[in-house]
Design brief:
The complex is a heterodimer of chains A (111) and B (115).
Chain A (H helix, E strand, L loop, with lengths): L3 E3 L4 E4 L4 E7 L6 E7 L6 E6 L4 E3 L2 E6 L4 E6 L8 E8 L8 E2 L3 E6 L1
Parallel strand pairs in A: 2-11
Antiparallel strand pairs in A: 1-3, 3-8, 4-5, 4-9, 6-7, 7-8, 9-10, 9-11
Chain B lengths: L2 E5 L2 E4 L5 E8 L5 E7 L5 E9 L2 E4 L6 E6 L2 E6 L8 E8 L10 E2 L3 E5 L1
Parallel strand pairs in B: 2-11
Antiparallel strand pairs in B: 1-3, 3-8, 4-5, 4-9, 5-6, 7-8, 9-10, 9-11
Classes of the chains: A mainly beta (111), B mainly beta (115).
């Protein structure tokens, strides 16, 4: 089993709709969690950190479910510009700040 | 504010040739530095991790090496490139001190094609 797994998609989303997807991790001792956005042929950019209490930033909401070992990202009122690949990142180790990335979930927002 | 510079943006190299990619960070001291590789259609793979000058942790066995000659400079090298070395190479930094709650911030990346 991979340390961090994501549904590759694509998730085809009508403009204005809500989309949500998860990222599962295998190490229950994982300490920190993040969502990144990656546009085609570009570097990943930090979208948001995921806290135990959840995190909301505008139309984006991230949540952590430690019991089931997954994090989620929800995008409300999808915009065409939200089309991208969303990568989750997890620090599975207790020491050192090394992030393991999922393979990414591709989201396509269509008019 | 912190910035990270990575160059070149694209590179085409023949098999067997050497490689040197450079990354520098500005606006922070003693950052953790990273080299990741993203093969076509694949996820990000951590190659090297450094917590300080001369301190390099290699994450996977491979044809590459890394060096950190200065606090904010990280270099990825190879003596002889293989076809399998093709990919998108990303340098990243995070806050220092061994904190495991710091996100990574990536440079623009180098797209390497080995022919």
């Amino acid at each position: 089993r991979k340390e961090v797994e994501q549904d590759p998609g694509p998730f085809n989303v009508p403009e204005g709709a809500t989309v949500a997807f998860n990222c599962t991790y295998s190490n229950s001792a994982s300490q920190s969690f993040f969502w990144y956005r990656q546009d085609c042929r570009k570097e990943p950019k930090l979208l948001m950190s995921v806290y135990s209490s959840g995190n909301e930033d505008g139309r984006f909401t991230a949540q952590l479910n430690r019991a089931s070992q997954y994090i989620s990202l929800l995008i409300r009122d999808s915009k065409l510009s939200d089309s991208a690949t969303y990568l989750c990142a997890v620090n599975p180790r207790a020491a050192g700040n090394k992030l393991t990335f999922g393979g990414g979930t591709r989201v396509l927002v269509k008019p | 504010s912190q910035t990270i510079h990575q160059w070149p943006a694209t590179l085409v190299q023949p098999v067997g040739s050497p490689l040197s990619l450079e990354c520098t960070v500005e606006g922070t001291s003693n950052p953790n530095l990273y080299w990741y590789r993203q093969a076509a259609g694949r996820g990000l793979q951590l190659l090297f991790y450094s917590v300080g000058i001369g301190q390099i942790s290699s994450e996977v066995p491979q044809n590459l090496s890394a060096s950190r000659p200065q606090d904010r400079q990280f270099i990825l090298s190879s003596k002889k490139l293989l076809l399998s070395d093709s990919g998108f190479y990303l340098c990243a930094w995070s806050g220092a001190g061994g904190s495991y709650n710091s996100p990574l911030h990536f440079g623009n990346g180098t797209r390497l094609t080995v022919t």
